[in-house]
What we know:
36% of the residues lie in helices and 13% in strands. With 383 residues, the chain is an alpha/beta fold.
Amino acid sequence: MNRRNLLKSSLSLATSSLLASPANAQKLTQGTSKKDTSANASLGRRKLGKLDVSSLGLGVQNMSRTYQTTIPSRSEMVNLIRTAYDRGVTFFDTAEAYGPFECERILGEAIAPFRKKVVITSKFGWNIDQKTGQRLPGLNSRPEHIKEVVAGMLKRLRTDHIDLVYQHRVDPAVPIEDVVGAIKELINEGKVLHYGLSEPGPQTVRRAHAIHPVTAIQNEYSLLWRGPEAVILPLCEELGIGFVPWSPLGVGFLTGAIDAATRFAPGDIRGMESRFSPENLPSNLALVDLVKRWAVQKQASGVPATPAQIALAWLLAKKPWIVPIPGTTQLGHLLENTGATDVRFTAEELRQFNADLAKIEVKGERLPAMVLAFSDVEAPPRH
Ligand SMILES: NC(=O)c1ccc[n+]([C@@H]2O[C@H](COP(=O)([O-])OP(=O)(O)OC[C@H]3O[C@@H](n4cnc5c(N)ncnc54)[C@H](OP(=O)(O)O)[C@@H]3O)[C@@H](O)[C@H]2O)c1
C-alpha cells in the first residue's frame, strides 16, 4: 500500500470510529425490548421537509468503534438505542460506512420491536465493496451502485424501507441528476421514502431539489463549527429543506470532556483535526468556558442544565427545522442529551449568548485536509 492509500485507510478507520472507553461505560439498563411500547417520553416533534421526527435524534456512528478506538458491547448498544426510544427518540442516524455495515446491523436489531414507530436514516456514497465491506478509494454514487447499497441496507436494517437516505458526499464523477434519478426509482419502488445530502455544494442542492424535493441536509454544525450559517442554512430556509447537524457536541468537545492536556489515541480522528492541536486547544477552550458558564447561570435560575445541554439547546433554538443527532455509547450521556429539549433560552438570553459567542475565534481546521476535500463539492453537469 503506498503512503497515500495508507493515509486514506487510517483516515477511513478514524472517520468510521465510535465510542466510549469501557472503563467509563456505565452499565446500561434494559431498554424496550420485546414489547412494542410507543415512545413514552416526549421530546417534542420537528419537521424536516415533510418528514416528522423527534426534536432530537441519536447518531449511532460510534456503536461499533468509539472515537477513542475502543469497541463497545453490542448488546449494550442495542439496549441504549431501545432506551433512547423509551425516552422519546424516534429519529436514528446511521450509514453503510459506519463499521462498515455493522452500525446498520446494530440499529436494525435494536429497532426491530418498534420499527414502524421510528424514522431511520442511512447513507450511501463512499466506495465500499458491497460483498466484503472493504473500503476502496474515493466515492461511488453511480446509480447501479446506489441501488445495490440500498438493497444491502434493507437487509441489515431488517426493514422494507428506509425513511431518509442521504448521499454521504457529493460524487464529483456523477451528475446529481443521475443520483436523484436512481433515488426516485427507489422511492417509486417504496424502498426509500425521502432523501438528503451531506456536506453538498449549494448549486448541487438546487439542482437536486428541482428534480425531487430534498428533505434534509446533514452537515457538521455546532458552536465549534458554524460554517453552515453562511450559505447552507439560508438555502435550507429558502427551499424548505430540513437541517440535521452532525457532531452537534463538537465531537465531544462542547461537553467539557476535552481539556488543554488532552491528547488523542492513534486512530482517533480528533488527533488529526488542528482545532484540537496542543497549540489551538487552549484558546478554543473559551467555547467550553462559555457553555459551562451558561450551564451555571441556567442552574441558578432554577433550570438544571449541563454544558452539553446548552450546546444542543443553542442548536434547537436556531431554527424549528434543525434536528441535532448527538452520538453516544453511554446511557448517562443519552439521558443528559435528551434533557436538552427542556432547556430553553429567552430572546434576551440568546442575544447575550450570541454576543459572547461572537467574541470567540475558533482556531484550526475542523477536519484533516484530505477529508475536508470531500465537502462543499458540486456535482458535474449532465451532458
Ligand atoms: N454525515 C456525516 O458525514 C457525519 C459525520 C460525523 C457524524 N455523523 C453523524 O452524527 C452523529 C453525531 O456525531 P459525532 O458522534 O461525530 O459527534 P457528537 O455527537 O458531537 O459527539 C459525540 C462524542 O461526544 C461524546 N458525548 C456524547 N454525549 C456526551 C455527554 N453528554 N457528555 C460527555 N460526552 C458526550 C461521545 O462519547 P460517549 O460515547 O462516551 O458518550 C462521543 O465521543 C454520528 O453518530 C453520526 O450519526 C455524520
